[in-house]
Write a structure and sequence with these properties.
With about 50 residues, the protein is an all-alpha fold. It has one domain. Helix content is about 65%, strand content about 0%. The radius of gyration is 12 Å and the shape is flat.
Amino acid sequence: MGENEDSGFTVLENKSIGRNFSMFRKLRDKKAVEVADYLGLKEAAYTK
């Protein structure tokens, strides 16, 4: 799968997922890099 191919999520779904992760991070007092590390991702991939 190339970078330009559709991930299967709509833009609206991606924004909703992003908001959920952001809310989770605030509730747990976690930085983006901490969540990315836990998921096994680099911070840039997680924030994208």
